[in-house]
Design goal:
Number of domains: 3
Distance between the termini: 28 Å
CATH architecture of the largest domain: Sandwich
Helix content: 10-25%
Strand content: 25-35%
């Protein structure tokens, strides 16, 4: 993936309340691509998503993150300069379509352009930069913005590129940030994450949260008492590598911490363990019947559902239930959605599965295959007539995967997606696997065949 957006940062050497950060975003016009669909123009900008409001112009949008002092709040921002250029030609931009909840078995007719917008001479979008929210990522304060590199004059069919955008972010003293406790290794990991997220990584040193003494516990496994012994070798290995680790059982957490239900008790424990002991990495050792996932509110196209989410255990700000109705993740609950601890799940359902998982992890860490870190596997089937999942895989490849990654692509449209090829590639030990197709909790559809839980249990990677 090539970088489209370049950012120049000008910031003051000391943190003075009422101070500003000046920034410039530059866009390379040579990396923009143009396609057509249904007689409309589709514009692709590497690293950008799209405006998704049905009927509105389906133009690129980029999430931009600015690091603030740990105890700051965003006071204001302003655009101070902009260089634009008109793109040659007359354009009729593709209208964004409705989302379709696939499990509902729905289809929708094509959504026509919103006439109020497409007959207007006003620029769309109206502004090139919008403030979204501020949040906390492991003690770091981050402000999120939306940047629109293109704007459209629908009635005239004119399209303009914002080649350069200058803006300032003002910040003020917030409610105060607590000093964090973590090891030097953990802090390096957080700083690496922040440096790849924000557009002003040179401010990390002076905007970092204050540190207390070194954390007493970094790596935590939460599991059932019956699986404790199976996970002990993993804790011992992490300790040998220099990470302070421990196992906590769900029954111990249930009896020592308060909460509306077990999931909330676990999260309340993690908030304390992160703040007081420096917990950074959490492995959930068990499927959702052993360690529950939080079912978060989902709304799409008039349909409401509840999706299991372990981000509930990673984003430790707030309660995920600000209105107190025990429906978690609603808009009214004002979620932060920035991770504070790293969370993974080993979805084991038996002692033998737990032992197998730990054995594979230890073998992978002690005797890793060479160069596997940059090996990826894409699998995509035809979702329904005329809609192939490989389209989304190609978007991911173009916009998000670095050029030095090696991607094996098994696509139904290419005729190479089948059971034998999938098992063979999985056994090669890919670092990343991305599947687009139908599935359930115990089966993965791959064109005319399937991959079952038994297939995955039998892998020798």
């Amino acid at each position: 993936m090539k970088s489209l957006l370049k950012v120049a940062i000008f910031s003051f050497p000391l943190i003075l309340w009422g101070a500003s950060i000046r920034q410039t975003i530059e866009v390379n016009p040579g990396e923009i691509t143009f396609q057509t669909a249904r007689g409309y123009d589709v514009i692709t900008v590497p690293g950008c998503d799209y405006i998704s409001t049905p009927g509105h112009p389906h133009l690129p949008v980029k999430s931009v993150y600015v690091l603030l002092p740990a105890d700051a709040e965003l006071a204001d921002f302003r655009i101070t300069g902009m260089k634009t250029e008109k793109i040659d030609g007359r354009f009729h931009i593709y209208p964004a379509q409705h989302q379709i909840p696939l499990l509902k078995g729905l289809t929708r007719d094509f959504t026509s352009p919103d006439e109020a917008i497409y007959k207007s001479e006003n620029a769309y979008p109206a502004v090139p930069l919008e403030f979204v929210k501020t949040g906390n990522l492991g003690g770091y304060r981050v402000a999120a913005f939306r940047f629109y590199p293109l704007y459209y004059i629908p009635k005239k069919g004119e399209l303009y590129l914002c080649r350069e955008l200058d803006f300032e972010v003002d910040f003020k003293a917030g409610h105060g940030a607590k000093a964090v406790r973590r090891s030097e290794t953990a802090e390096r990991i957080y700083r690496s994450l922040i440096s790849h997220l924000v557009i002003n990584p040179e401010d990390i040193e002076r905007f970092a949260p204050k540190m207390r003494d070194i954390g007493q516990l970094e790596y935590l496994i939460i599991t059932d008492e019956a699986y404790r012994d199976a996970f002990e070798p993993l804790i011992a290995w992490k300790t040998r590598k220099g990470f302070m680790g421990a196992i906590r059982t769900v029954s111990w957490i249930d009896s020592h911490y308060s909460g509306y239900d077990l999931a909330e008790k676990i999260r309340n424990y993690l908030k304390i363990a992160h703040a007081d002991s420096g917990v950074t990495w959490v492995l959930i050792g068990g499927d959702t019947d052993i360690v529950p996932a939080r079912k978060a509110y989902v709304y799409a196209e008039g349909y409401t559902d509840y999706a299991p989410s372990d981000l509930y255990y990673s984003d430790l700000d707030g309660t995920w239930d600000a209105d107190g109705d025990h429906v978690y993740g609603e808009v009214a609950d004002s979620l932060d959605l920035f991770p504070d601890v790293y969370v993974g799940r080993a979805p084991v359902n038996s002692l033998s599965e737990a032992q197998t998982f730990v054995s594979k992890v230890l073998n992978y860490e002690k005797n890793p295959p060479l160069d596997y870190e940059t090996d990826m596997l894409f699998m995509a089937e035809e979702l329904w007539t005329g809609c192939s999942g490989h389209v989304s895989k190609e978007i991911i490849d173009t916009n998000y995967v670095p050029d030095y990654f090696d991607i094996t692509k098994l696509y139904e449209v290419n005729g190479n997606l089948n059971h034998a090829n999938a098992i063979s590639e999985l056994n090669e030990g890919k670092a990343y696997i991305n599947h687009s197709g139908h599935a359930n909790y115990n089966v993965l559809s791959i064109a005319q065949s399937t991959l079952t839980s038994g297939d995955f249990d039998g892998l020798v990677n």
